[in-house]
Amino acid sequence: xxxxxxxxxxxxxxxxxxxxxxxxxxxxxxxxxxxxxxxxxxxxxxxxxxxxxxxxxxxxxxxxxxxxxxxxxxxxxxxxxxxxxxxxxxxxxxxxxxxxxxxxxxxxxxxxxxxxxxxxxxxxxxxxxxxxxxxxxxxxxxxxxxxxxxxxxxxxxxxxxxxxxxxxxxxxxxxxxxxxxxxxxxxxxxxxxxxxxxxxxxxxxxxxxxxxxxxxxxxxxxxxxxxxxxxxxx
Length: 234
Fold this sequence. Notes:
By secondary structure, the protein is mainly beta. The protein is built from no helices and 18 strands. Strands 9, 11, 12, 15 and 16 form a five-stranded antiparallel beta sheet that branches. A five-stranded mixed beta sheet has the order 13-17-18-10-14, with no helix packed on it. It has a four-stranded mixed beta sheet with strand order 4-8-7-6, with no helix packed on it. A hairpin with a 2-residue loop joins strand 11 and strand 12.
């Protein structure tokens, strides 16, 4: 006689791992049949808020170079089961960082947690005399050697390894007629190898043989901090 309706459906509600749904259909002659689907699994609930394992503490501050290793995370799920947990946003560069832990259950539901921390820059002191700072143009004979002296601190700890210095470079710039100038009172001789001695880093910088030029010299440490001095060659 054919079916009374082309399809029949049943539904289930709630959550669980052994739900069922029943549907009935009939034909045009009034005969009917019922079918039940069992073992339906439904999970619409997010897993537990993930927990960080290791890594930087919440709202903590760390000096560059002392940030703990990247954390992992974990969670639980009472229905479909815990599937995975990942952490994004970890970093060791100077500045503020925000990590996000994302947990997933087998059904694809997710839960997140965040943790913030800060990485502090090193403290640089210098350049010391005979170099003047604060925008003063140090005048010196071209081709002479200027001793660059400075100190580097990671928090309260003074760094003495030359590996703390990532670069020491100069570029030619336009001379500013109104900028204050000061004569370099002492020059140096010898090599230009960066070294640590007498409680400070020392680099004997041989100036280029280009009279009348102005230069900006920048010393940069591994954390990205820098010291800048200006020179005018005679």
